[in-house]
Design brief:
single chain, mainly alpha, two-stranded antiparallel ribbon, 6% strand, flat
Length: 159
């Protein structure tokens, strides 16, 4: 008769298996430390300030042109809502036609806004160029023309 605390005949003791696993893990750890080809710095990065980041109010950062264009799009879309709502309630208009009718003013408004911006940029006065020279100045206004001819290039400059 076999007692319950005794291992089954021919089988290793479960505590022996656990000890063998611990020994194998320790050997692997030491070998990996010896053969390490990298170093990982696990120190915490310093915090900059003690306040957590929060979303900022207002529009997200973007270029001035993008801000202006989004404002124009918002204005045109808000202006087209009452008319579109009335036509939708009536139900006499195809949705594609509504999209074309109410999308074209937004495209036209963007085109006009871009044209106005380009015209405004073109009409800005240029700053005068001021160059101050001290001492004797020689200003050469000669025009040089050159011609190159032949299989082996021969350049002749004429003043």
């Amino acid at each position: 008769m076999q007692l319950p605390e005794q291992p089954v005949a021919g089988q290793p003791d479960p505590t022996d298996r656990a000890e063998v696993r611990k020994l194998a893990y320790a050997v692997e750890t030491v070998l990996l430390e010896e053969m390490a080809t990298y170093h990982r710095d696990r120190t915490e990065l310093p915090a900059v300030g003690d306040t957590p980041p929060v979303p900022q109010p207002g529009q997200p950062p973007m270029s001035q042109w993008a801000t202006d264009a989004s404002g124009v799009l918002k204005a045109v879309s808000v202006a087209s809502l009452p008319v579109g709502g009335a036509l939708w309630i009536v139900g006499q208009v195809d949705p594609w036609a509504l999209g074309i009718i109410f999308g074209s003013p937004a495209v036209a408004a963007l085109a006009v806004a871009r044209l106005v911006a380009k015209v405004k940029d073109a009409n800005q006065t240029t700053q005068p160029v001021v160059q101050n020279y001290y001492g004797t100045v020689h200003h050469d206004e000669r025009t040089v023309t050159s011609t190159t001819r032949g299989v082996i290039a021969n350049t002749r400059n004429h003043h």
